[in-house]
Amino acid sequence: MHNPLRRAALRTLAAGAFAGALPFAAQAEAYPSKPVRWIVPYPVGGGSDFLARQAAPRMAKLLGTTIAVENRPGAAGIIGTELASRAAPDGYTLVFGDNGAMVFNPAMYRKLPYSPTNFEPVGFMANFPLILVADPASGIQSARDLIAKARANPGKFSYASPGAGSPHHLGMELFKERAGLYIVHVPYRGTAMAIQDVIAGTLPMMIVDTAGGLAQIRAGKVKALAVLSKSRIPQLPDVPTIAEAGVRNAEVSAWLGLYVPKGTPADVVARLNREMRAALSEPQAKAALETFGLQVSPSSPDELAAFVRRETAVWHKLIRERQLQLD
């Protein structure tokens, strides 16, 4: 026999459970419902910082929230990247991932406090072309001239880099490997210090990115020998590619992708990717970024993941063969 009071009580409980679920459903649909932070694992004023500060307010407007750019530099990007890896996977923490964080560091550090698998890709954003430059007073006239001089004097030339494990460092190691050169590495703490010593003649050469080197090249303070891109770049149309200088398969750039912690809901990742693409497509943003030296090329999450797999295969092999591990 059915008890009418029991049936009424069950209906009341069911209605209460449904009503109680509504705020959670609404919360899931309402992303974002609070401010978002964007961790940049590098200092204020650099290329990654500039990109974040151009993209963040535009993405925030499209998302209907605010995005605070938070610089957490140090230890080749490890400090900021580790911080992001421990954040909740809810879409409220974004982080830049680049060659260093997602490709180089896992091969160079045995005790890395994070793994690239701790993150979900949102999409590729942009890259900085890299340029081989020399002190004009060094007597090095071209990339071919540098190669000839370095081969004739193994170990007697040295080069500066913004830091061990940077794309500039690894790019030079790739160039050395492809050209068969022995040139000594002298790491600095950032591009500004490194390029100043090349300008002063303390060291004869280095690789710079467009953000850190274009102004010095245009002022004649350093001489551009070659770009490490597959084609010449519009900012320096008269500078040959490294392949034109006779060195094949030595192309490299400093690239930046957007990531979120692993486990972030797929619909949130898709929303962030959509608004990232829209923000980077705005004419004013694109013009500002290209003037700064970036090449803007937003992608899907899957395209970024596939790109990183290809990069990993190339660079991990080079790091092992040249024994570039740092611990």
From TrEMBL:
Residues 1-28 form the signal peptide. The keyword Iron does not apply. It holds the Pfam family TctC. InterPro entries: BUG, Bug_dom1, TAT_signal. PROSITE patterns: TAT. Keywords: Receptor, Signal. Belongs to the UPF0065 (bug) family. This is Tripartite-type tricarboxylate transporter receptor subunit TctC. It comes from Quisquiliibacterium transsilvanicum. The lineage of its organism: Bacteria, Pseudomonadati, Pseudomonadota, Betaproteobacteria, Burkholderiales.
